[in-house]
# Entry
Amino acid sequence: MKATWEKIDKNVVSIDVEVSAEKVAVALDQAFKKVVAKANVPGFRKGKVPRGIFESRFGVESLYQDAIDILLPEVYTAAIKEHGLEPVDRPEIDVTQFAKGQEFKFNAKVIVKPEVTLGEYKGLEVEAVKAEVTEEEISAELERLQGRHAELSVVEDGAAQNGDISVIDFDGYVDGVQFDGGFSERYSLELGSGSFIPGFEEQVVGMELGDFKDVEVTFPETYHAEHLAGKPVVFKVKLHELKRKVLPTLDDEFAKDVSEFDTLEEYKQDLTSKLQERKEKEAEQALEVAVVDKATAAAEVEIPDSMIETETDYMVKDFESRLKMQGMNLDLYFQFSGQDEAALRGQMRADAVKRVNNNLVLEAIAKAEGFEATEEDLAAELETLSKSYNRPVEELRDIFEKNGNISNLQEDILVRKTVKFLLENSKTV
# Structure
């Protein structure tokens, strides 16, 4: 195989590949074995048609596409590795020659990982983050715990308030016509949760048991159903039930119920200690973010759109996984939020750009400093995971290797090494 390449644009290379006629012959043999198993030729069982009869009946050209499909991935991958290129998208292939007894020639245009021009990344000044726990934060944490352990009490009389669980019927109309998905009976809605279209829950607040009310709202312009986007809608609402959270008293009994401590004061001290530990970790993470952001801002890199799209794909899938853990899915999220996937991806794009930018710069710094993820580093990482998941190291290694994820572990190790280096060589002000 012979492969040459040249850069034809900022992040695009053109690769010309030539493969020997001998390899073409081998690929044609493999293609014949694949195709003949399905060929129907009178007088012969499937898979038993001689090669010469097959070619005279169907033509050798009938094997070309299968042979190309067999040969192309192998030789393209070899060409990429030979020249140390790092594609970030699928190649655009143009086959210029393929025939029996001839060389296989093709051109591949592919977007590759962009080059990074590093700026100053040592001695960067980052602002120190305070990690002090305030009384207000302790109170807020206790209130959160109160809410988690609150009991629901049925409201017999009075108006709906924010925080109440309301049980309602609603029936939606646009221009006087009922629309699909706008009707439900005895639906439980926490008022103030922001689950419904903006303005809906605020108008339920103040309703009393048995009340009927026309709730007038407008669908967001980005609503996932185009025929409803931006349209004013009237929901006919009936309030059936109200349930209100009754918070437990903050006393020693509360501390005994929610912890292993006998007094509220002991529990508060433990909370303070844990909050302090959490804030110290958050402060360290904030420093890491700050120093990486500064190193990235000092560098120059032009990111291909394909890398941003790939990162956004990953972020959407991760968001969907977290929704499923909460008993939701993307369709329900779009319905409740009034968004569609395009709007969600638009919101995520800036973060996707930042992630890709940071990763490219960190990778360039690691290369400039000669950092590596050694076998000792990998062994230590697997040991840590072994303790976390309570599974043997070799079992975890086998899982990662079978799934092709060892390289991901090594990349994570390299990123952490590089961030640690940036912090150690920064100045806190």
Q: What stands out?
A: The chain has three domains: 2-111, 151-246, 262-428.
